[in-house]
Amino acid sequence: MDIVVFGAGSLGSLVGGLLAREHDVTLVGRNPHVDRIERNGLRIDGELDAHVFPTATTDGTGLDADLAVVTVKAFDTDAAARTLATGSLDAALSLQNGMGNEATLATHLDCPVFAGTITYGAMFVEPGRVECTGIGELALGPRDGGSSPLADRIGTAFGAAAIETTVAMDMPRRLWRKLAVNTAINPVTALARVENGAILDPPTADLAAAAARETAQVARADGVELTDTEATGAVESVATATAANRSSMLQDVESDARTEVDAISGYVVDRGEELGVDTPTNRTLATTIRTWERGQDLR
Ligand SMILES: NC(=O)C1=CN([C@@H]2O[C@H](COP(=O)(O)OP(=O)(O)OC[C@H]3O[C@@H](n4cnc5c(N)ncnc54)[C@H](O)[C@@H]3O)[C@@H](O)[C@H]2O)C=CC1
Ligand SMILES: CC(C)(CO)C(=O)C(=O)O
Which residue range or ranges hold the Ketopantoate reductase C-terminal domain (predicted)? Predict the structure, then answer.
């Protein structure tokens, strides 16, 4: 497959680098990372080891590909979609956290847009090098659920590159469940400056669980069957499995970078308002993170 990975940061470089073992990959990113990859290739180390030579560019306009994998932060999705729309794609797949990315892509792109969730961990080490901090799995499928031969083809392509992939018929439920995990873990760890495992202890556990329950309530109002128990259970198991991790929002806050709060807690608040569900915990968490963002000179 010809695959464009739009957003060659931590996750995009890891996924793009793994795909490059089997497919023709073009990474769209920024310098000095792109420049280093063009000269010396991309190195992946940590839990996986690879040295690959994908095409790398800072110019994402006019690209033709079988698939575009989108791995920019949620607040860059609109710009990424507008740029990708100048090329010709057979399909697009979001592997981003937060909600609303697929809808944004579909607004601009003239091809099927698939939803994805990924539990691999990636960290940017230096230009030309990323670390795989955790081998996980990927699920992808039609963004409104159901099956599609094109989703099957994309799943097979990821599998051929040794990325463990499930082609799922229930992506809306999986996206909401991941959102419940992110609404519980990300803002709480970012505000308290603690690793993921710390949210398992009371009284922080109650705060995280309240955020996840609200998210499940909004999901149900949106027609997705996610129980409170499933949402809080997912939070517990992810926080246990990633106990020593610093969440992406904590890493953003620590490096004075903009967070994805709008697509995580903010999405739950906004969608809750539209559906008549009150979300006081997510509202408080979103407001506090946004207040921090406003007071910073963000990268
Ligand atoms: N890092 C991880 O382990 C995981 C990340 N995610 C999600 O994946 C998404 C990406 O996360 P990260 O890779 O950590 O973020 P990141 O900030 O490391 O990577 C995003 C990259 O996109 C680039 N970019 C943005 N707009 C661009 C444009 N117009 N042209 C060229 N490059 C552009 C940025 O320069 C940056 O390097 C987020 O939604 C995150 O929540 C999901 C699971 C795991
Ligand atoms: C699952 C979790 C919480 C892992 O840290 C994550 O997705 C993130 O940090 O954004």
Answer: 173-291
